[in-house]
Write a structure and sequence with these properties.
Elongation Factor Tu (Ef-tu), domain 3, 2 domains
Length: 200
């Protein structure tokens, strides 16, 4: 599990096709990397991936075809900045919201504008995802826990404070870019419970 509070920004160092899927090497950038272990989970732009190799400056992960199809990781150019977060510990403060690292799909950065010191973004979002996104609820965009400021039938809006812009890959985001979206866990489970209430 993760919190959606980004710990560092790294970069995509390489993408190698292996047996039909891919191995990615991620430069750790500003991510605190002491004590890393093989097999631990790191969220890369919101996608939970397993460390299969590492050195002092990078780590390698295997990305399945499902991951490559549902996230931006199969299409980002080499050198692209990546939001990184190591898995939370039971003793950590939950400053964002509970994030599983299981990306639900993609949205498109549609528009950016300044709002006092904040930067606001609107994301065009597929309708199957929008049903889980509510005003004042939580959404995870490229691994960043954000509050939904507005939502309608075509997309949603968020506001980023200066700290978030400065310390995440959002500073490089451009209109037209695809982003990974994970909807709130509670919304997903509430729908599932409703759909299966007659099973007993």
């Amino acid at each position: 599990m993760f919190t959606g509070l980004i710990e560092g920004v790294g970069a995509l160092a390489s993408r190698e096709t292996r047996g039909g899927d891919a191995r990615l090497v991620i430069g750790v950038g500003t991510l605190p990397f002491d004590g890393v272990r093989l097999g631990e989970s790191i969220a890369v732009n919101g996608c939970c991936l397993t460390v299969v190799d590492f050195d002092a400056r990078s780590f390698a992960v295997d990305a399945s075809n499902e991951t490559l199809a549902l996230t931006t990781l199969g299409r980002l150019p080499l050198g692209a900045p990546l939001n990184l977060e190591r898995a939370m510990r039971p003793s950590d403060r939950l400053g964002g919201h509970l994030v599983s690292g299981h990306v639900d799909g993609l949205a498109t950065a549609e528009r950016r504008w300044d709002d006092a010191r904040a930067v606001r973004w609107r994301f065009a979002t597929p309708k199957p995802l929008l049903r889980y996104i509510a005003q004042k609820g939580s959404v995870c965009v490229d691994g960043v826990s954000l509050t939904v400021n507005a939502a309608d039938a075509a997309g949603f809006e968020v506001a980023l404070i200066p700290h978030t812009v400065e310390h995440t890959a959002f500073r490089a985001l451009q209109p037209g870019d695809a982003v990974n979206i994970e909807v709130d866990l509670l919304a997903r489970y509430a729908e599932r419970l409703q759909a299966t209430r007659d099973w007993t």
